[in-house]
Sequence to fold (137 residues):
Amino acid sequence: MLTGAHVVIYSKDADADRAFFRDVLGFRFVDAGHGWLIFALPGAEAAFHPHDENNKHEMYFVCDDLKAQMASLGKKGVRFGEIAEEQWGTRTAISLPGGGEIGLYEPKHPLTFGKGIKARKGSTGGKGSKARGRKKR
Fold:
């Protein structure tokens, strides 16, 4: 049984980015030893997009009000990239102290997590078909 997912973020200044996740974003964490912090993240989902390369990954935090989230984090000194409107949501990027970025967006699509959300399990498998849930016994 799968019990979770572990995201690895490579950074030129991992200590600064760990401090950002701990002190600015306020994520809970465990110390795996010698100050190696592993952070609990909010609900997650995975999507697969066509691309001409394999092993290319992106990470986005999801919020329900992008402008409010940016204002809240901005008060803590967080810097952001430009805001862009996409078919799937309104997005920006959070600038990390180590020089990298993590996406932040307000989705326009249904989510698999959150209040009142019932994710579906299984699929009919056809292109464009809607997933159909299975009843638990």
About this structure: DSSP finds two helices and six strands in the chain. Strands lie at 29-31, 37-39, 60-62, 84-85, 89-95, 101-107. Helices lie at 14-24, 66-74.
